[in-house]
Specification:
It contains 15 helices and 20 strands. It is of the alpha+beta class.
């Protein structure tokens, strides 16, 4: 089983299997390692419980230390043995390098002493805690667990595809199985979302409560909550809107923004949104987010427009605040030469899903080779005010379907009678021309306008330092 360490946009299931990994370092063996989606996802891999032997030998791959500038130190990653009863850690291995790490040090053989616990039930836990490195294990001696030619990440992918097929074909006989998958907290976020989407494609009256209760539960992974908002927004408003309103109070900013965006899609939702803000339970500046502003302009009634104007008049002028933030970040930025690795990790977490550097990353937004030549001011303005100057090649479109549903995406191409767009996560979706009532260009870019809220000044400085190094 695999589980992400925390729920963020980069929580992609990272585990892959290889039978010929780094054979220039050691003879071939089967290994499970956390490199499926690069270094940024942090995750934990668990084996099934087994009877503990006196000792376990294994090969461990770990490049966390190797990827640092010093190449000396102790890895953030770990391999642990835990007791099945109580989860007590009884043995642990972390790669430690006292001298400068070489390529030949990437895979090491280690032995974990379990004599004290021999005969008890236990399991192996492989922890990837690094955003700049990965870890893997293999060649277990004795072979306490099977290592089939697939990993939990493969199972996640298969479950997601099965859910998508069930939803597309509206196989109602599978609804109960989809509910089980969605409610299983240990299943990967993307798989649970696929199940939720499938249920929304063949809706039943109880779906709003099913999805809504998970959505408002603050122990639910933030990434799942964020994406559930859009699905809830497609369900009957009298059932779903109260859950969206409830999530406005006390949730993380991305969840609040997702709920605000869903509520802003109808005058009824806007009424709940404004009431929550007038009661002081949600930040007024959510109304200044560009996608929200666009929806409010389209759906707010005249009396609601007046309430919006009144709310904004009581707060700080958003444009002046943004301009001040940009100038402060520019004047306070000092290039240290020591933050490029941290900045690269921040880029991979927040930007690489759409942007490519050196052949690595997504292709939704512009490639950023040579971006360092832009300079501090241009980069700061683009990150903190992405809608200031939009390239026509990357303009988004607002799509209205014949059934009234709305979508937003970057136009990619036309395939016969189908148009292909990409959503904010970079995932492509198709819309048949016959199902489309209209599609109009948006004055706003697909690039998220959230980095002024989610990046601290230190994180922003690290990101800027990395981008300036890309020349």
């Amino acid at each position: 089983m695999s589980t992400p360490m925390e729920s963020r946009r980069d929580d992609l299931s990272p585990w892959l299997m290889s039978d010929a990994f780094l054979t220039q370092v050691t003879p071939a063996f089967r290994i499970y390692l956390s490199e499926r989606n690069g270094y940024k996802p942090r995750s934990i891999l668990y084996t099934k419980p087994f009877t503990l032997p006196a000792e376990i030998r294994m090969n461990v791959f770990d490049n966390d230390v190797h990827n640092t500038e010093e190449k000396v130190g102790t890895s953030k990653n770990a391999v642990r043995i835990r007791l099945a009863d109580g989860d007590q850690v009884i043995a642990e291995y972390r790669m430690k390098q006292d001298t400068k790490m070489e390529f030949s040090d990437l895979i090491k053989s280690t032995t974990l002493d379990l004599h004290e616990y021999e005969g008890k039930m236990g399991y192996i836990e492989v922890v990837d805690s690094s955003e700049t490195g990965s870890i893997g294990i293999g060649k277990l001696e004795p072979a306490v667990v099977d290592m089939p030619p697939y990993t939990p990440s493969d199972i996640d992918t298969w479950r997601q595809r099965a859910a998508e097929i069930a939803g597309n074909l509206k196989i109602t006989d599978l609804r109960s199985r989809l509910v089980q998958v969605f409610q299983a907290s240990w299943i990967h976020v993307d798989t649970r979302l696929a199940a939720a989407n499938a249920l929304a494609n063949m809706p039943a009256r109880e779906d709003a409560d099913l999805l809504g209760k998970v959505f408002v539960d603050k122990s639910t992974p933030a990434l799942l909550r964020e994406r559930l908002a859009a699905i809830l927004g497609q369900l009957p408003p009298e059932q779903s809107l109260p859950y969206l309103q409830e999530a406005l109070e006390g949730s993380a900013r991305p969840v609040q923004l997702a709920a605000t965006t869903a509520l802003a899609g109808s005058s009824t939702g806007i009424g709940l949104l404004l009431q929550t803000m007038e009661d002081g339970k949600a930040a007024v500046d959510l109304l200044t987010e560009f996608r929200v502003k666009e929806l409010l302009e389209a759906h707010a009634q005249p009396n609601q427009q007046a309430r919006i104007k009144n709310l904004l008049a009581k707060g700080e002028d958003e444009r002046a605040a943004r301009k001040k933030l940009i100038e402060d970040r520019i004047s306070n930025f000092k290039e240290t030469g020591t933050r490029t690795e941290k900045g690269k990790a921040i880029f991979e977490t927040n930007c690489a899903i759409c942007h490519q550097i050196g052949g690595s990353g997504g292709m939704i937004g512009p490639q950023l080779n040579g971006i360092g030549n832009w300079g501090v001011r241009a980069l700061t303005e683009k990150i903190l005010d992405p809608n200031r100057n939009i390239s026509e090649s990357f303009r988004t479109y607002n799509i209205t379907l014949n059934d009234g549903k709305q979508q937003t995406g970057l136009y990619r191409r036309t395939e016969g009678e189908v148009m292909v767009f990409a959503d904010i996560s970079g995932k492509e979706f198709k819309v048949a021309k016959k199902d489309m009532k209209s599609y109009t260009p948006s004055p706003y870019t697909l690039m998220p306008d959230q980095f002024r809220h989610i990046l601290s000044e230190e994180e922003f400085g690290s990101l800027l330092e990395y981008l300036l190094s890309v020349k």
